[in-house]
Write a structure and sequence with these properties.
heterodimer, A: mainly alpha, two-stranded antiparallel ribbon, two-stranded antiparallel sheet, 15 helices, 4 strands, disordered C terminus, B: alpha/beta, six-stranded mixed sheet
């Protein structure tokens, strides 16, 4: 593996290590403590799940801007199902996941069925959801308490880390297997790579996109359920705040591990990179308005970096075309790790 | 023995030698009475066609003759309004679905190859030929790679299956597309203009693949505009005109001339290429360098057609794009009519009367989703910021009429026009009013014979009227036919200038491939 390749794959992880090391040196006794690390881990799972949702739709070449609203709705619904409709917490969770899937299906209907640009369609759905949430929550009144023990124990601490962190890791493995090792996953990837070519290859591109939207809805719903389980209360209006960091993570994640492709592990690293950045700054005493500024800057930076990487590729391709007949062993294929790329 | 065999073979005429490859008299693929209507227009009007195993059937016709419609019906993209399709013993009377086509051994190599560029060769193959899974049901990339490696080896393609397709050269891509198409034991394969995007020197590789398929008994349908290709490769040629089959001929018993007459009908005419008398020096390049070209010195005169020729990446295109301000020239000096000329943007070049017609019609030369009138107006002549005015649209319609654009009204969506008509719109846009310098890149690539002839005449007329035409082309026949001079590029620099008797297609090709 060439140095350039190594850095493009692992650069984000190195940045993560550098930022962590930097804050540790800057704030010894505050930053690199086990309680701080626990705090960071504990606060991430909902954000990780919604970032998975953002990523999976980006894989098929679409946007889903309704996942924030879906998260908000499901964190409220799951508690309302238990406290107002008397459902057991298990049934409430299944029902909430069903609502998430239904929202995903509605997005898919708008985008795949009616051919509406996904950006616009999912903003539309998000707006509808915001209205519905206001309706069921009597004008965004938060719900406090009433969560049964079984439900809140979903978020209890094991081995120093809350359970949702483990859920997030298991889900990461599942999504990774889906995207890299199943036909459905590869068809989703192919659809995002070039929808026309995918269709000509005999791939049902509509089905791939529907799958992605439904999965995104379910993943966002899981994020919402986890918020409620961890907090024990539900604030229906908090969903949209999750949206932008999720996209920042997905785009930043596409600059690592499998550069140029939206991928699970890159997204996970990105989430934690952003988290330690914000936490470090907050520990240093900056005010809370810094968080959105930081998130927005990260999003722009991530997209700029992946654009630069694409331009770089175009240049090297142009150069390749110039030296028309390269000897076989000098082709860039050599630097391209074979199965490892997929594995 | 070998001698005897040699003599025996030499006694067989090429036509006989070819037809012996036919494996059966039962057609592998046939259409009967195939019709397709779009509203009032009949894109296909009762086409009967049979393709046999072990033959190459060239499918010819101008743009809009119905070739694409026929291919789309076979691929399951369109449904015919009448007629049946036979695949072996199975009869389909209401068209095919894409899955049915594939399951009955019908494979396609699409015009733009239809490859998934960011993904690996192995994965591109897998999406068509199927994924190999391990016991747990997950994809086994190890077995997938092995399958791809085996397939590539069978086709003698020396590439690593883990390579992303975008890293491959054009010829390798087309071979991957072929290997992938036939990975599922195809009985019939349709090539839709496979060489349109291929550099000339890579075409032979693809021909080799087609010939292998033929000798393996596969029925090959080969759609093309290049008649040399037909003569070289095909056993029979079927010609469509206005949606009807006007003839099926044995290639061995026909000539290019005869095919052209079949394709265009009565109005066959060759471009009169009386070289105009070249005038004063208009554009001079002194030691120009930039990305892809190095140390280029050239002179372009008023009233001449100067062709810059070369293989892909040879530098002729790069020079053209520097002249029009699309790419920066990093060294050297350009002069236009004696004045220093170094455009940093195409806009600057246009203001000095230098216009550019890019080869990539839908990607660079047009606004496919806008109407033709707006496409025509969107350049420096446009008088309002946001839309073309009524007056401009009337003017556009008049110009379209004069250029033979169908439809001549400025309201048609650009992308809905046939390739030939699109190119007429683009050229009309940049040649009205006549520019001082016209840089035309592959102006006739992938368009029908009729439009080709018309464009050649237009270019010749413009040159006679004083425009200096810089033709960037990789089509040696075209250059030999219409250019006054040709400069052949290799490895980023001009190597030789050809004119007069030396300006022949063979000589151009020879110089392109030399060292």
């Amino acid at each position: 593996m060439s140095a350039a390749r190594f850095f493009s794959r692992w650069g984000l992880l190195l940045v993560f290590i550098a930022v962590f090391g930097g804050f540790s040196a800057w704030l010894p006794g505050k930053f690199p403590t086990s309680s701080n690390v626990q705090d960071i881990l504990t606060s991430q799972p909902p954000g990780i799940f919604i970032a998975y949702g953002a990523m999976i739709v980006l894989v098929v070449g679409e946007f889903d801007l309704s996942i924030g609203a879906t998260l908000g709705m499901s964190q409220y619904l799951v508690l309302k199902f238990i406290t107002h409709y008397g459902l057991s917490w298990q049934v409430a969770i299944v029902a909430t996941l069903g609502v998430g899937a239904a929202i995903g299906a509605a997005n898919a209907l708008a985008v795949v069925g009616f051919g509406i640009n996904s950006f616009i369609a999912t903003i539309g759905i998000a707006t509808i959801l915001a209205g519905l949430v206001q309706w069921i929550s009597d004008g965004n009144q938060p719900l406090f308490g009433g969560a049964p023990k079984g439900f809140t124990s979903l978020a209890q601490t094991k081995h120093g880390v809350v359970l949702p962190v483990y859920y997030a890791l298991v889900t990461a493995v599942l999504l990774w297997l889906l995207l890299e090792f199943t036909v459905v996953g590869r068809q989703m990837r192919a659809t995002g790579a070039n929808r026309t070519a995918a269709r000509l290859s005999g791939i049902h591109t509509g089905r791939a996109r529907v799958t992605a939207f439904v999965l995104a809805g379910v993943l966002a719903a899981i994020g919402g359920i986890l918020v409620t389980a961890q907090v024990g209360a539900a604030d229906a209006s908090s969903g949209p705040a999750f949206l932008l960091p999720a996209y920042a993570a997905a785009f930043l994640g596409a600059t690592a591990i499998r550069p140029g492709f939206f991928n699970v592990w890159g997204t996970v690293i990105a989430i934690f990179l952003v988290a330690i950045g914000i936490t470090g700054l907050q520990l240093k005493g900056v005010e809370s308005w810094v968080t959105p500024v930081f998130n927005g800057s990260v999003l722009l930076f991530a997209v700029a970096v992946s654009n630069a990487a694409a331009t770089q590729r175009a240049f090297s391709r142009a150069r390749g075309a110039l030296s028309r007949r390269r000897p076989a062993d000098a082709k860039p294929t050599a630097s391209q790790p074979p199965a490892g790329e997929q594995a | 023995m070998a001698q005897a065999l040699g003599r025996e073979v030499s006694e067989v005429t090429p036509a006989e030698a070819r037809t012996t490859a036919r494996t059966s008299e039962e057609g592998v693929l046939a259409v009967e009475g195939l019709e397709c209507r779009f509203g009032a227009t009949r894109a296909l009007r009762g086409v009967d066609l049979t393709v046999y195993g072990g033959e190459v059937l060239a499918l010819l016709g101008e743009n809009g003759a119905g070739k694409s419609t026929l291919i789309k019906i076979l691929a399951g993209v369109l449904r015919p309004t009448a007629g049946v399709i036979r695949l072996g013993d199975d009869v389909f009377s209401h068209g095919l679905t894409a899955d049915q086509a594939r399951n009955h051994g019908l494979a396609f190599v699409h015009q733009d190859l239809g490859l998934l560029e960011p993904l690996s060769v192995a994965e591109n193959i897998a999406h068509v030929a199927g994924f190999r899974r391990s016991r747990g049901g997950l994809i086994s990339w190890r077995r997938q790679m092995a399958l791809a490696r085996e397939l590539l080896a069978r086709w003698e393609i020396d590439i690593d299956p883990a390579t992303p397709v975008r890293r491959l050269e054009a010829a390798e891509r087309s071979l991957v597309a072929v290997a992938r198409a036939v990975a599922t034991e195809a009985k019939a394969i349709v090539f839709d203009e496979p060489t349109a995007a291929l550099p000339r020197h890579d075409v032979e590789l693809l021909y080799g693949a087609v010939e292998r398929l033929r000798s393996a008994g596969v029925a090959v349908v080969y759609v093309t505009h290049r008649l040399t290709e037909v003569m070289r490769l095909a056993d029979r040629a079927a010609v469509l005109r206005d949606g009807a089959l006007v003839g099926t001929v044995d290639v061995a018993g026909t000539s290019e001339q005869a095919l052209v007459e079949l394709i265009v009908g009565a109005r066959e005419e060759r471009a009169a290429a009386a070289p105009g008398a070249a005038g004063d020096e208009l554009l001079t390049l002194q030691d120009i360098s930039g990305e892809g070209a190095d140390g280029v010195t050239l002179t372009l005169r008023r009233g001449e057609i100067l062709a810059l020729v070369g293989l892909v990446g040879a530098g002729h295109r790069a020079v053209g794009r520097m002249v029009v301000g699309a790419e920066p020239a990093t060294g050297g000096e350009m002069r236009l009519a004696g004045e220093p000329f170094r455009p940093r943007t195409p806009w600057e070049a246009q203001r000095r009367g230098v216009v550019y017609v890019p080869a990539n019609r839908l990607g660079e030369a047009s606004f496919p989703t806008l109407d033709t009138g707006t496409n025509f107006s969107l350049r420096d002549r446009q008088t309002t910021a946001f839309a073309s005015t009524r007056k401009e649209r009337v003017a556009a319609g008049r110009v379209f009429d004069e250029w033979g654009v169908v439809p001549a009204v400025p309201d048609a969506t650009f992308a809905a026009l046939s390739g030939g008509n699109q190119q007429r719109v683009v050229l009309a846009k940049w040649m009205t009013p006549a520019p001082d310098v016209l840089v035309a890149e592959e102006p006739t690539a992938g368009i029908d014979v009729g439009t080709k002839t018309a464009i050649y005449e237009r270019l010749a007329d413009a040159a006679r009227a004083g425009t200096a035409v810089l033709l960037l082309s990789s089509d040696a026949d075209e250059v030999a036919l219409i250019a006054d001079r040709a400069v052949v590029f290799r490895h980023g620099t001009p190597k030789v200038e050809l004119a007069h008797e030396a300006l022949t297609a063979d000589r151009i090709a020879q110089e392109c491939y030399a060292g």
